[in-house]
Amino acid sequence: MKLALVQLMVRPDPESERGALAGATVQAVSGGADVVLAPPGTLGEPGHENFALAALGSVVVLTGDEAIDPEVHAGLAAAPPDVLVISPGAESDLQVEAVVELALALSLSVAGLVIVSERSGAEPGVPGHGGSVVIVLGQVLAEALADDDILYAEVPVPVPAPVPRAPLPVVPPILMQRLAHHRGERLVVDYPADLS
User: Per residue in 156-168, pLDDT tens?
Assistant: First the structure.
């Protein structure tokens, strides 16, 4: 199945958002896509990705902090989906890299197909720094190269499950720091020496 994943820049108003999404969708369909996905919540439609990906099997969409929460990942491991879509809303370029690293590992432990669907073009500290990617069993099939981009990937149907399943990944420290900060907590970090 040919999947197209749209990465959109953050736009100032719903009208320009609709226009950009419509243009990208027309371009993706013209490019032969069987399924076109946009970032979760685009135009206020959370969860529409479930409908679009139903042909691939069971789908779970995680947004915001739940996408990087190890407790949520542990819950998914108990009843793993075929497809995992994550959209944590990276707040920096370093978080983008950590999200892709996490997604690669989740494709070997939780779901064979992991899609990172993000926005781009935001200011530092605000969600929307890009990093959209399509991964099957630890292999990157497509990766965003520009702020407004359409990723195309030939996704196997049925989606292969990781066999054997790898242990759940350790969430990268920068994402754990973000999670702790959003919860009003302080992350405990074990250093090899006392730095006080």
Answer: 999 999 999 999 9
How many helices (H) and strands (E) the chain has is answered by 5, 8
Domain CATH number, residue 55:
3.60.110.10
Q: Name residues whose C-beta falls within 8 Å of residue 26's C-beta, 6 or more positions apart in sequence.
A: none
* pTM, full prediction: 0.91
Neighbouring residues of 126: CB distance < 8 A, sequence distance ≥ 6:
91
Residue 194 lies in a domain: no
Q: How far apart are CA 24 and CA 28, in angstroms?
A: 6
Q: Which domain holds residue 85?
A: 2-182
Q: What is the DSSP letter of 74?
A: H
Which residues are CB-neighbours of 193 under 8 A, at least 6 positions away?
none
